[in-house]
Design brief:
The structure is a homodimer of 416-residue chains.
Chain A lengths: L3 H14 L4 H17 L1 H15 L3 H7 L3 H16 L7 E6 L5 E8 L2 E5 L5 H12 L3 E5 L5 H17 L7 E3 L4 H8 L7 E4 L3 H10 L13 E4 L5 H13 L10 E5 L6 H10 L3 E4 L1 H7 L8 E3 L14 E7 L2 H11 L4 E5 L3 H10 L4 E4 L18 E3 L7 E3 L5 E8 L7
Parallel strand pairs in A: 3-4, 3-6, 4-5, 7-8, 7-12, 8-11, 9-10, 9-11, 12-13
Antiparallel strand pairs in A: 1-2, 2-16, 14-15
Helix pairs in contact in A: 2-5, 2-7, 3-7, 5-6, 10-11
Chain lengths: 416, 416
């Protein structure tokens, strides 16, 4: 392992974080925000060099691009994190036993969090602020296309940390290589938690490689079931918002499940999508129901089952016909990724059954999955959306970046 | 994978558990307890056959042995679990957003829990009761020496489940082979959480093999630091209780760290251990301090550092001299397993510093680590002691066998 020395430095630095008060943490976050604003030129210069190598793919270029306005927004986000309550030292349980032992379960940092992300240079500052605020050291592994920008950002953070006499190794950026990802995922004893953000391919590599605890984030194969009793006005708004508000994010709708008894209403339900150019991949029954009303150029009959389970991340969507709420639940069970699922229904029993039986981080009744977001949930800034069940589930904000320990105080009691 | 059909059956059965109320769950647990008492002969016959093959190692034989009294105790434990509050459906957060969306974070089962354990036939009933009460299906992989007993036990449980029209596949016992362990640990999509209980060797195999989320339990390299200001009477009781109450369990003391300024008091501190035959492995300074007072036949000078970090599970203990509380913390950081650690001190600042800096599930001040136990903590029955930070940490009782989901109820709101 060529990075062992880096891992050791970060682990040692993580221990010193326990001695930094929340007030000082907040001061440092505000100082980093100041430095971002003051140091725009340096960061933008590094970013320009990255962009020059990036080529012309618009979406990719746009994700990589920093501007003075975007840096102001990043600084504002960092100042916002400084205003949030500390997630540390919360007393989660407190009891005194009959023998006088005083037990407390108290929230504490994980220690060292490894973060793997692709070419989005805002993530470096986001992750630093959330890790630092929650008392965790961070080992960052960014995409190679943003490496120059990331290095300039981490250097800026290090300068501020040095000014406050905090060990700068509380945040380190690894080389932007595949090998570094592998080393990070197997750094047993140095990394307490690893959070990969990115593509299905990355998540699958992580699953195969990781020997440290991992929280998988981001993959969202998201459904909306329009029930026999679904309200048309609500359904239209919900499907439209979930699909088209931001089609490239993980909470965007991928597949509409429609109750067979409402097939006649399907054209109306998806009408708002046509104007926005959403391409529908419909099963035979839905295709027939839509033929003639939905634009032919945007309508495709599903040839095989490969469509189901696709995370589109674009203006496309599956449409499938089901007979009952249980058929909808079975489809979600088979094809969903445990991220966000919704039902549109006026039937309270159906809503309750859907909530009980759907196994996902976020289950919606008469609301769009686009709400799955830490800030929307009132949790403050988020580091990602967990699709697993161990540790955090759903939006991971500051509280979800802590673990706990038990403190037991006695006076010489012994166990019989 | 030869066990895929079993995994599928259990996963399907786990879904049906959501439809079983807590009252019915408790009825079934009581009915299984009745069946254990009524079916003693069958279980004891199977156990006798296992014992015959087991050989003469007393400790091993005793762990494997069931008796009518032990079965009564197991049945009583199961009835006790039935009296505990359900860990499901707890509202962990509840808020209504300004836009009227109603958010609840609600505790739910993991789904399917895989349990790997060695030749202790009481574990089968324990695990079943805790999984069933917490709404989880269980896939058991027991030790081969107890396989006949385990099969008789699971058959008994299946009979009761059938009587209550619950899918018996909510608990299944895998073949007692190494291959089955491997399949269980890689059953992605079928197993939501795997909890291995057993030796260091098993834990290490799990770490190398697992592709499903795992909670590591059981390995306890446990320290007690006797501080400069430690009270002798408390220290004697605490060290004695932590070391000798049950030396074979994971919370038993493995290493006493003594402040150099209290070396003269060391003979008195460990005096209660001599009568019980505890063999001490002491560093040079501690060896010198103990020579002449501690029985020569039970005292050994440590030749190399291999002694530190040993989990003895027997009447042996390391003794090491340190200069400060920070040296004690550094030793624990290097050699501890994150299970249970303690300090004996009258110095409040030292106690606080130890609590803040020691990274372990349970940190004790003036109390012995022998208290690390779900029932002692007032959590009810436990399935194990987690030494990791993701998910449960410390004693895992019913609440720790649940995850949560977010339920979001609206009325057609959309996100801007």
């Amino acid at each position: 392992m060529t990075l062992t020395n880096t891992f050791k430095k970060v682990k040692a630095a993580s221990k010193t974080l326990a001695l930094v008060s929340d007030t000082v943490r907040n001061d440092i976050l505000n100082a980093v925000a100041d430095a971002i604003v003051a140091g725009k030129d340096t960061i933008l210069k590094a970013n320009a060099a990255d962009l020059e190598k990036a080529g012309k793919d618009y979406a990719f270029y746009d994700r990589l691009l920093l501007t003075p306005d975007r840096l102001d927004a990043i600084a504002a986000d960092m100042r916002h994190v400084a205003t949030l309550p500390s997630p540390l030292g919360r007393i989660l349980k407190d009891r005194t036993l009959d023998n006088g032992l005083h037990l407390r379960r108290v929230s504490v940092p994980f220690g060292v969090i490894g973060m793997i992300f692709e070419a989005r240079p805002n993530v470096t500052f986001d992750v630093f602020s959330l890790c630092f605020k929650s008392g965790n050291a961070a080992i960052l592994k960014g995409g190679k296309e943003a490496d120059g920008t990331n290095r300039a950002e981490v250097e800026l953070i290090h300068e501020v940390l040095r000014r406050y006499n905090v060990d700068p190794s509380v945040v380190e950026l690894l080389p932007a290589t595949h090998e570094a990802t592998g080393e990070l995922l197997t750094a047993v004893g140095y990394v307490d938690l690893c959070i990969p953000r990115g593509s299905k391919r990355l998540i699958s590599f992580v699953r195969d490689t990781a020997k440290v605890p991992v929280i998988e984030t981001g993959a969202g194969v998201v459904h909306c079931y329009f029930d026999e009793s679904g309200d048309m006005a609500k359904g239209q708004r919900i499907v439209d918002n979930a699909k088209t508000r931001r089609p490239t994010v993980c909470n965007a709708l991928d597949c509409l499940l429609v109750n067979r008894k409402r097939l006649a209403d399907l054209p109306q339900l998806v009408a708002p999508l046509a104007a926005k150019g959403v391409r529908l991949h419909a099963d035979a029954e839905a295709f027939e129901a839509l033929s003639g009303s939905y634009p032919e150029s945007l309508l495709e009959k599903v040839a095989d089952d490969n469509v189901w389970g696709t995370e589109w991340l674009s203006m496309q969507m599956g449409v499938r016909t089901v007979g009952t709420v249980d058929e909808a639940i079975a489809h979600i069970d088979k094809y969903g990724s445990g991220h966000s699922e919704s039902i549109v229904t006026e039937d309270k029993a159906a809503a309750r059954h859907f909530e009980d039986m759907v196994d996902a981080a976020c289950v919606y009744v008469n609301a769009p999955t686009s709400f799955t977001d830490g800030a929307q949930f009132g949790l403050g800034a988020e580091i990602g959306i967990s699709t697993q069940k161990l540790g955090a589930r759903g939006p991971m904000a500051l509280e979800e970046m802590t673990t706990y320990k038990w403190l037991i105080e006695g006076n010489g009691q012994i166990r019989k």
